[in-house]
Automatic annotation (TrEMBL):
Record-given protein name: CCAAT-binding transcription factor subunit A
Keyword Transcription attached: yes
CDD domains reported for this sequence: HFD_NFYB (cd22907)
Top-level taxonomic group: Eukaryota
GO molecular function, one term: RNA polymerase II cis-regulatory region sequence-specific DNA binding
Protein family according to the UniProt entry: Belongs to the NFYB/HAP3 subunit family.
GO (cellular component) term, any one: CCAAT-binding factor complex
Keywords: DNA-binding, Transcription, Transcription regulation
Domain Transcription factor CBF/NF-Y/archaeal histone: 10-74
Pfam family, one: CBFD_NFYB_HMF
Native source organism of the sequence: Giardia intestinalis (strain ATCC 50581 / GS clone H7)
Amino acid sequence: MADEKTTDPFLPIANIGSIMKECLPANTKLTRGAKELVQESVTELICFVALQAQTYAVSHRRKTVNGSDIITALHDLGFARFHAILHKHYASMLRKS
C-alpha cells in the first residue's frame, strides 16, 4: 500500500509559530522545540474537547457535533473562563449565516 497517503494530524508548525508570536513581545524568539511542544499540546487538546463534545452530542441522540457542543465541552472540561466569550462569538457567527 505504498500509494496510501499518511495524514499528519498536527497543525502546521508555521501557523503555530505565527500564533505564538502574536501573543509575545516583538523581540521574543521561539525554539523549534517550543513550537513542537505547543503543536502536540494543541492537537491533544482538540482531540480531548472533540471527544467530550461528541459524547454530549450522542447523549442528545445526534450524530453531528455542533459549535454549542464544543462550547459545552470546554465548560465541562474546566475551561469555564472562555464559556461566555465563546458563546457570544458563536451566537454572532450563527446570526451572520
